[in-house]
Amino acid sequence: MKQRRTALYTFLFFGFAFLYGPILSLVIFSFNESRLVSVWAGFSTKWYGELMHNDALLDAAWLSVKIASMNATLAVILGTLAALALVRLKDAKGRKSLAVMVTAPLVMPEIIIGLSLLLLFVAMEDLLGWPEGRGQLTILIAHVTFSMAYVTVIAQSRLAHMDQSLEEAAMDLGARPLKVFFAITLPIISPALVAGWLLAFTLSLDDLVIASFVSGPGSTTLPMVVYSSVRLGVSPQINALATIVIGLVSAAVLIAGFVIYRQEKQLSKKS
Amino acid sequence: MMLPQAIAQRSRALIIAVPWFWLALFFVLPFLFVLKISLSEPALAQPPFLDVIREIEDGLVTIKVNFGTYILLLEDSLYVSALIGSTKVAAISTFFCLLVGYPMAYAISVAPKHFRLPLLMLVMLPFWTSFLIRVYAWIGILKGNGFLNQFLLWLGVIDQPLEIMHTVNAVYIGVVYSYLPFLILPLYATLVRLDPILLEAAADLGCRPWKQFLTITLPQSMPGVMAGSMLVFIPVMGEFVIPDLLGGPDTLMIGKMLWMEFFNNKDWPMAASLAAVLLVVLIVPFVVMRHFEQKAAEELQ
User: Fold this and answer.
1) Cross-chain CB nearest to B140 (options A25, A95, A253)
2) pLDDT band per the 50, 70, 90 thresholds, residue B240
3) What is the rounded average pLDDT of the residues A98-106?
4) Potential cystine with B188: which of A223, B105, B232, B245 (Cβ 3.0-4.6 Å)?
5) A215-229, B8-22, B237-251, B259-273: lowest mean pLDDT where?
6) Shortest Cα distance from A206 to chain B (angstroms)?
7) Which domain covers residue B133, as residue numbers?
8) Does domain A54-270 have CATH number 1.10.3720.10?
9) ipTM confidence
10) Domain boundaries, chain A
11) B41 by DSSP, 3-state: which?
């Protein structure tokens, strides 16, 4: 038994080495003096300096952050509604079709989502005159469509596992459904919604394929800039950018994890 | 003044209606346009196709359906081999994902309770950092003078650099690396809820650990295995970034083909036909996935 555990843990260790090795190599070589990414030539932060003067990249990054935060907010609202419908409205009309429509975007190849939405936007503009051209708005709509599915999954599991007795007590005391939702349900599921917001934010910030289809001239997102630079070969500036992204994401995930952990601990203390 | 009950009923309807209509409009309806454009004729126009339904003169409308792209799709062996290539890459990399992911999920599920959540977080963390950047990281590792070759040459295992970059092997590595978390999470969720009583009973009756695993743990975790495998298989079928950045001339995949038809050849009807074919092909694994997800959910209750 003990031997088997050791073997398993060793495997786990190598698994994590596989997951983190490439990321670590990116970070290390972002501090490399030489332009060659695979030969170490001394410590330097010059690529970070160059990154700060790369205007095309900074503009794209700003656009991506704007779209990502609007996307995350909309996706959390729509995803929470969908999760409420799926968990609480067991016999509502359209629930089954909603369940299918919400699972499909999770696995649907991005290339199909991107192409099909572009064709929809082109047809809509032709018929209705809206949306006028393609850009920020069409990217936002496309991102909300697939990231709300992820929020739904997260919110759904939290809603399904929460204790409903508090809500029932409030109802018995005469609170209106809307009041119950905002005063009780929402605070209880809020850790899941924070996690969902962060996930939707990073999904949008990271998307290359869908944005390439539905963006227009003048709306180039960060992954599109990164992609065109990566196609030309490895560049230490991309390593520097990757290091910044990895640092920010790790910090956000660690903080969110810590907050959820503390909240759970407090909840379990109270009960 | 509305009665509270009527308000409640209205808000219930609204709760389901808003996400339902959003997804119907922006997720389901677009597929009809894919179908429509796939039946239209390519043309030098803006947008580059002749609409199926078009007005010739005032009020005179013709409907002209063109199956040409589908016929070309079947006749040209390039498209057929791209579909086969995608299926092969998706199947083989799902298998390798299982080979790496199952022991990892199992190890986490038998780890002491307070270690499980941090370990899962460690699995998820790379998933949160940019997908594009993680694929990019492998270029530096796999290329001719990359880290892997430098390391193996230094060890003396090889005396010629290995050619992995721009081959299908690089695509396998990239896919397994990028999609591993998708498999570990559902697998862990089923494995951690397995009843240890069966295993204890088997052990008491003298069943060997390996046999315990093969006869009890593995069959019981099948819903998780299947659901997780489809979660990898389906998106990989349409993958574009990995074959484009890591693959080479020997990696024909349908996602990359679609991209090239759309962006390089500006052939929208062909791109739409490829999307339609891929969608139809993916219905079977999708139904399999839903079936096993529901089965896993039922077993939990």
Assistant:
1) A25
2) very high
3) 92
4) B105
5) B8-22
6) 5
7) 83-300
8) yes
9) 0.89
10) 54-270
11) strand
